[in-house]
Write a structure and sequence with these properties.
The complex is a heterodimer of chains A (535) and B (527).
Chain A: E1 4-5, E2 11-12, E3 21-25, H1 26-45, E4 54-58, E5 64-67, H2 70-75, H3 82-97, H4 102-121, H5 126-147, E6 149-150, H6 159-169, H7 178-192, E7 193-194, E8 199-200, E9 205-211, E10 219-221, E11 223-226, E12 238-247, E13 262-264, H8 267-290, E14 295-298, H9 304-312, E15 317-318, H10 323-333, E16 337-338, E17 350-360, E18 365-373, E19 379-385, H11 388-410, E20 413-416, H12 420-433, H13 440-461, H14 466-480, H15 497-500, E21 503-505, H16 506-525, E22 528-532
Parallel strand pairs in A: 9-19, 12-14, 12-16, 14-15
Antiparallel strand pairs in A: 1-2, 3-22, 4-5, 6-20, 7-8, 10-19, 11-18, 12-17, 17-18, 20-21
Helix pairs in contact in A: 1-3, 1-4, 3-4, 3-16, 4-13, 4-16, 5-12, 5-13, 5-16, 6-7, 6-11, 7-11, 8-9, 12-13, 13-14
Chain B: E1 12-15, H1 16-35, E2 45-48, E3 56-59, H2 62-68, H3 74-89, H4 94-113, H5 118-139, E4 141-142, H6 147-163, H7 171-185, E5 194-200, E6 208-210, E7 213-215, E8 226-235, E9 249-251, H8 256-278, E10 284-287, H9 293-301, E11 305-307, H10 312-322, E12 326-327, E13 339-349, E14 352-360, E15 366-372, H11 375-397, E16 400-403, H12 407-422, H13 427-448, H14 453-465, E17 471-474, E18 479-482, H15 483-486, E19 489-491, H16 492-510, E20 512-517
Classes of the chains: A alpha+beta (535), B alpha+beta (527).
């Protein structure tokens, strides 16, 4: 580590415990950072596209996750390197913002870094590279807008939406029944979508999974499924036209929050207290009964006396329902969550056409279905599958599909997939490069090359000759002036993505390019890394 | 410049071929482990737990073996998981599913080594699985309309399931037991209603199905030992010191007399409660919680049989059997549904005294009392019987039946082979491999029985080339036999679940090209 010396030759201590830190600076720092970023991208590269492979991850506790989702892989990876952590953040922000394309964004950033390294070797200043990338990304962004197409759909004509979701799902393990799952995802999103405001609240879609059965048994339920059963084994298992009281107060004696003591010192007091206690349970149940509820859903537990009273008065009840589920039930049934028994009124009750308990398999597994709700704005996707990992992966895949459907409702512009958008951008950026004077021209040209890496990876993963395929497609795009030519991953026979119906959302693609450029710029600007050396 | 370390200490990463090899080897090791337990002549395993007491389990049940293993290999965990799901979902075939997945991966490994891309293999496997399933669907028999035949189907299935277990000596007896029990359920899959009671002593043959309900409890002293036309109140209430539930209540007294007064009041309260219970007009009271001496004495005075501390399942089952409801408050005796049964008596099984409820209102529930030489035998017998019961309940719901003894595998293999011949491209190799993996199952059954598997399988294949063949491996005589005549059947649902989840798992493992293992969480040294 470089030291500074004062006029008497004594070293200055600039950093605290300077000797114990490692420090890399200058070009070395940039190289080290770039190689770390590329290493992350290399891991994800093989997961890209419909023929991409999965990764098996073992968590610190020994649980196994098998996934194809970039964000999940990186999240679980136990990354230690600082730059690698930046890449993890990158994919996470794509996940939050768009929900899909988490792998692509990291591969893109990796390619940009790779190109930057070459430029650095030529002695181009990192800031100039960053600026060039910035310009290029703007060109690509605008070009995407130009080649994008609006596509029309309505609540009745969902076919285009389904097609887009299928593109997303085809890269996952669930592609066996992607058609069905895509339809489920689209229907779910449309059920909760606010088409006037063009917004979708994905919180209203509950994704619940249960091992067993097969993937084909996955279903969309216009209602809520709760992993709970009735509090008393002898309560009715099926309630029609249920009026639901949704409570957040326990069927237990009152528990004032202030500390208090009730002193019993005479026999009378003892007896009155006992009577009051009984009275109390009676009142609670009576209040529910009085407002006309035929089902009680409660966030807390029941005292066994209260439980029996409920059962006795023919008032089925469910206990220990989680807060989020409670909210969903309230939304779906149009009821209000009632925090005190005194505040129960008939208007606050939720309504559902059918509540039923369903049991699964050979063990005592029961779930409660609340269907035909007053307000069908909350839906549940119920996933079945051969094993736990399968269900988890299906959940993640469906989440991606739901996000895509939502994005389309927000903005119905699409670009074509299969790398066609990237190739087209690459051609546009390359053509634009010559118009820029100065060193940035090189950076812009490199950007174009980096864009090629996504179709290259797609072709490679599909077992095609990467360079051959890419050059063929590229020349075809230029020759026919058709920006929809992409990589034919599934060996369909045509590489016109319009015919293959492979779509991606415009905002997803734009976001990918913007985010990747931003992170790369950030990495390039770092010229000094100081870290404690004892890790 | 070398890539800096990306992952944390101790976290490992395996890529490409190495990763694939690691998962193949792990999965095959697991399959090989349970392979020897397959089939009627399969062997058992002894499992010793690492916990205190070093408990020993002797078992033949795939799910039980795998559950007990501590596995580090992630691919192996996938297999353990599918076997567990198979157990939960259909109850049987837990070994077959693992073995089939293992064989599929073994075949896949060969293909990968001959440079076929895993995705191509997956595509082939998918087509093959679909084709195999269709073949099964086509060949499945459904005898739902004919109750006689259906019952004999059930009996055959139960016998086939049991023949690979410890109960195989008395399989006819137990098969009948299981079928009777399941038919009483009348189509519900709720196995809770069938109680299995294990009592060491006697031999397995002494096990019996009881129509009533047996509660493993003793009758209180001084209470009647035999009640006819019993009216039963099933309760879940505190019968010790009925504490005040209002929060923060406590007794504070300033003199001895007051203590006495309150004690008297407490006693009075309990007496009132007991009075209320008695006012239901019952002669038997079953409580989930403890009953203290004082109320017990009161019950004895009233000539009521009081049973304390029945476990929760027992209570629920009893309520189910007798048709009563589980009560916790006793203020309106007229509207509480009481349970009824013809006779309650104390019976002896071995050395233990138990309470027997017979002539119950609802005939759904029943009890199977298992007798056997040791705890291990009983445990294994229970597992075997549980498997048989699960399969039977599933079959009652989905009454399609297949023949056993490797017949379904050969049928599927034949169809899949034909598909392979029709399919152009590399996929056909994978489809062929699938058929080989299917044939591995009868091979293993034959091997385990000490038969010449190569000879048998080739004979079997030739047999199956004829139309409507019903031949399979007859392990007893050691040759190819007619499964229909031998009465070896299997449930369609189990076979389908085996096929689908094994393919799914194999596909999942094949798709992996990288394994990243996080550093194991540091555990405090508590040992």
């Amino acid at each position: 580590m470089a030291l500074a010396f004062d006029e008497f030759g004594r070293p200055f201590i600039i950093l605290k415990e300077q000797e114990q830190k490692t420090r890399v600076r200058g070009l070395d720092a940039q190289r080290a950072n770039i190689s770390a970023g590329r290493a992350v991208a290399r891991i994800l590269r093989t997961s890209l596209g419909p023929k991409g492979m999965d990764k098996m991850l073992q968590s610190p506790d020994g649980d196994v996750i098998i996934t194809n989702d970039g964000a999940t892989i990186l999240e679980q990876m136990d990354v230690d390197n600082q730059i690698a952590k930046l890449m993890v953040e990158l994919s996470r922000s794509q996940d939050y913002e768009i929900g899909d394309g988490t792998t692509g964004v990291v591969v893109m950033a990796g390619a940009l870094l790779e190109q930057a390294e070459k430029l650095l070797e030529r002695g181009i200043h990192p800031i100039r590279i960053a600026e060039g990338y910035e310009m290029a990304s703007r060109i690509a962004f605008e070009h995407l807008e130009r080649i994008s197409q609006k596509f029309e759909f309505s609540a009745t004509d969902i076919e285009p939406l389904v097609q887009t979701c299928m593109t997303t799902l085809s890269s996952k393990i669930v592609n066996r029944c992607k058609c069905m799952l895509a339809e489920i995802a689209v229907k779910a999103v449309l059920a909760v979508a606010d088409l006037d405001r063009k917004d979708v609240n994905l919180d209203l879609i509950k994704v619940e999974g249960k091992v067993g059965g097969k993937l084909e048994d996955t279903e969309l339920i216009y209602g809520i499924v709760v992993d709970k059963d009735m509090s008393h084994p002898q309560m009715p298992k099926r309630i029609e036209n249920a009026k639901i009281a949704i409570l957040t107060c326990p069927f237990e004696p009152p528990k004032p929050k202030t500390k208090h003591k009730v002193d019993i010192d005479t026999v009378e007091k003892f007896q009155t207290l006992r009577q009051q206690e009984q009275q109390y349970f009676d009142d609670m149940v009576q209040k529910c009964k009085d407002v006309g509820a035929t089902l009680v859903i409660c966030q807390w537990g029941f005292d066994d006396e209260a439980n029996h009273l409920l059962m006795h008065r023919n008032l089925p009840a469910v206990r220990w329902v989680g807060g989020v589920e409670l909210e969903l039930i309230a939304i779906a049934t149009g009821g209000r969550i009632v925090p005190r028994f005194q505040e129960l009124t008939p208007e606050k009750l939720g309504k559902a056409g059918l509540v039923r308990e369903k049991s699964f398999g050979t063990t005592k597994d029961r779930m409660l279905y609340i269907e035909q709700c007053a307000n069908s704005r909350a839906v549940t996707i119920f996933i079945r599958g051969g094993n736990k990992m399968m269900i988890e992966e299906t959940k993640r895949s469906l989440h991606d599909a739901l996000c895509v459907a939502r994005n389309l409702i927000r903005n119905n512009s699409i670009v074509y997939g299969g790398g066609s958008a990237e190739i087209s951008c690459s051609i546009a950026v390359d053509a634009a490069a010559d118009r820029y004077p100065g060193v940035e021209q090189y950076a812009i040209r490199s950007f174009a090359e980096a864009l090629d890496s996504i179709p290259l990876a797609l072709a490679e993963n599909s077992g095609l000759q990467p360079i051959n395929t890419l050059t063929a497609v590229k020349s075809q795009q230029v020759k026919e002036n058709n920006p929809f030519c992409g990589i034919d991953c599934n060996d369909v026979g045509t590489n016109d993505m319009k015919e293959q119906n492979v779509f991606e959302t415009l905002i997803g693609k734009q976001q990918q390019i913007l985010l990747a450029t931003q992170v790369v710029k950030m990495i390039l600007k770092i010229d000094d890394v100081i870290a404690p050396s004892d890790y | 410049m070398a890539v800096e370390r990306l992952l944390k200490d101790e976290a490992t990463e395996e890529k490409g071929d190495r990763a694939r090899m690691a998962s193949f080897i792990g999965a095959m090791a697991i399959a090989d482990l349970v392979k020897t337990t397959l089939g009627p002549k399969g062997m058992d395993k002894i499992l010793q737990s690492t916990g205190r007491g070093r408990n020993v389990t002797v078992t033949n049940d795939g799910a039980t073996i795998l559950k007990a293993l501590h596995i580090d290999n992630p691919a192996a965990k996938v297999l353990v998981d599918i076997s567990k799901v198979q157990d939960d979902e259909v109850g049987d075939g837990t070994t077959s599913v693992v073995v089939l997945a293992g064989e599929l991966l073994r075949e896949a490994e060969k293909l990968v080594n001959s440079k076929i891309h895993p995705m191509t293999i997956i595509a082939g496997y998918r087509m093959a699985a679909e084709c195999a399933r269709n073949a099964l669907l086509e060949k499945a028999m459904d005898n739902k309309q004919d109750p006689e035949k259906f019952k004999s189907d059930l009996l055959n299935i139960a016998m086939t399931t049991l023949s690979s277990k410890i109960l195989s000596q008395d399989k006819e007896y137990f098969a009948k037991l299981a079928v009777d029990a399941v038919l009483r359920l009348k189509g519900s899959t709720n196995l809770e209603a069938i109680q299995i009671l294990k009592k060491p002593g006697g031999s397995l043959k002494d096990s019996f199905l009881d129509e009533g309900f047996i509660l493993d409890k003793k009758i209180g002293i001084g209470q009647p030992k035999r009640i006819e036309n019993a009216k039963i109140l099933v309760a879940n209430t505190a019968m010790d010191t009925d504490k005040v539930k209002i929060y923060g209540a406590r007794v504070r007294v300033d003199s001895m007399t007051k203590v006495a007064e309150i004690e008297a009041a407490e006693k009075q309260k309990m007496r009132e409660k007991v009075q209320k219970i008695i006012a239901h007009g019952i002669n038997c009271f079953v409580n989930r919680q403890l009953i203290y001496n004082f109320p017990e004495e009161l019950f004895a005075d009233a000539g009521i049989l009081a049973i304390e501390h029945a476990d929760f399942d027992g209570i629920e089952r009893l309520a189910l059997v007798t048709g009563g409801e589980i009560a916790s408050t006793f203020d309106n005796p007229e509207s509480v549904k009481l349970g009824h049964c013809k006779l309650i008596e104390e019976i002896m099984i071995g050395e233990d005294r138990l309470i027997h409820f017979s002539g119950c209102e609802m005939g759904q529930a029943c009890t199977i009392v298992l007798r056997g030489a040791s705890q291990h035998v009983l445990d294994e017998a229970e597992r075997s019987l549980h498997d048989a019961l699960c399969v039977l309940t599933q079959t009652v719901n989905d009454s399609r039946v297949l023949l056993g003894g490797g017949w379904p595998e050969m049928v599927m293999a034949k169809e899949v082979d034909e598909l392979a011949r029709r399919t152009p491209g590399k996929k056909s190799h994978a489809i062929e491999a699938f058929s080989r993996a299917l044939q591995a199952i009868p091979t293993i059954i034959a091997d385990n029985a000490g038969l010449d598997s190569a000879d048998l399988i080739s004979q079997l294949r030739a047999e199956h080339h004829k139309e409507r063949s019903t031949s399979g491996i007859d392990v007893i005589s050691g040759g190819v036999g007619d499964m229909e005549k031998l009465g070896i059947s299997e449930s369609f649902k189990v076979k389908q679940a085996v096929l689908l989840s094994a393919t799914e798992a194999a596909e999942m493992i094949l798709r992996v090209d990288e394994i990243i293992t996080c550093a194991p969480r540091k555990r405090e040294d508590r040992m």
